[in-house]
Design a protein that fits this description.
Helices cover 10% and strands 35% of the residues. The protein is mostly beta strands. Strands 1-2-3 form a three-stranded antiparallel sheet, with helices on one face. 19% of the residues are buried. Residues 9-22 have low confidence and may be disordered.
Length: 124
Amino acid sequence: MAFVITAKAVFEVAPLGASFAPPWPVDVMILIINGGLRLHDSATGNVVVPGCCAGLEDWRDWADALSGSPVWLGHDPEPQIEMIGDDLRIRQDGAHRDHDAPSYVDVPRDLPPALLLDVRHDLR
């Protein structure tokens, strides 16, 4: 069983709005990185993609799942991580669980640290 975790991002450049008073000039542009991490199980073909409003800048939060802490992966759909024995089950839409559909990926709990190191390397 092989797992691939990749960064999924949509890049947008947005001017800072007038309602926000930054300490730098208002005409400065900021880079917003929408997206998150996409998980693919090559053995089953199942894929879990980040939900709306997930940010690539939060990729480190996946490590919190190892201790059972909730991790924000976006909404609509609302991906969720739960512990199932020695595995982490990442559901595509945990809020609307369809137990008959292959809408999740099971990952051995000891694997995410290595996957996250790969992500860190890829983002450099």
